[in-house]
Design brief:
disordered N terminus, Lysozyme, globular, 2 domains, mainly alpha, 3-stranded antiparallel β-sheet, 3 strands
Length: 205
């Protein structure tokens, strides 16, 4: 009798934990573009939209009306670095800045897709990819060159103001007026801080 009660209790706790985890992820997704997760040594799963620990990995979220791309990926940092250097030279950017955006946007996952539909390493929306002449957002080279071209466009639009350019990258240029202040959007402000911190880290490597 006691054994049956324990089994029921375990099932109830598992159900409650699962429901809480789903609710937590849903809340994070409603507020952030990307959600990161890791399981600690005790088996506790943590979620965040602002990873501060190398153990956090991108929680795979797919758009396109729920369709999941049947692709697996293996991060080839050497290949990504090669494309970053080439794009930086082509669009007069610091390679460390491009890498910082890639880390903040996709954690170097070439097949990352946000709930909003942004795709690839630099999380290009389909309309932005089309505007930047990107044929395949899941192709690392195409995505990095398209994202870098877009970033150069934003930096020129905001007279080299990096924070405004990053705000526009996150929110869209229609919501950021040149010579204006950063809008009071928590996610955007956290995003800017995260990219700038990664930028500093990469420059000091």
């Amino acid at each position: 009798m006691i054994g049956k009660k324990l089994k029921r209790t375990k099932k109830f706790l598992l159900f409650a934990w699962t429901g809480t985890a789903i609710l937590t992820v849903s809340m994070c997704m409603s507020m952030a573009k990307s959600v990161y997760t890791y399981k600690d040594s005790r088996g506790v799963i943590h979620f965040t939209d602002a990873p501060t620990d190398a153990r956090f990995k991108l929680f795979r979220v797919y758009g396109d009306r729920g369709r999941v791309k049947p692709k697996t990926y293996r991060v080839n940092l050497a290949e990504i670095q090669k494309h970053v250097k080439a794009a930086a030279k082509a669009y007069r950017l610091d390679p460390a800045l491009i890498k910082a955006i890639i880390k903040a946007e996709s954690a170097f996952d070439p097949f990352a897709v946000s709930l909003a539909g942004a795709r690839g390493l630099m999380q290009l929306m389909p309309e932005t990819a089309a505007e930047m002449k990107v044929k395949d957002s899941f192709n690392p080279q195409d995505n990095i060159f398209g994202g870098s071209k877009y970033l150069r466009h934003l930096l020129d639009r905001y007279d080299g103001n990096l924070k405004l350019a990053l705000a526009a990258y996150n929110l869209g240029p229609k919501r950021i007026i040149p010579d204006s202040k950063i809008p009071p959007v928590r996610e955007t402000r956290q995003y800017i801080q995260r990219v700038i911190q990664y930028y500093r880290d990469y420059k000091n490597e």
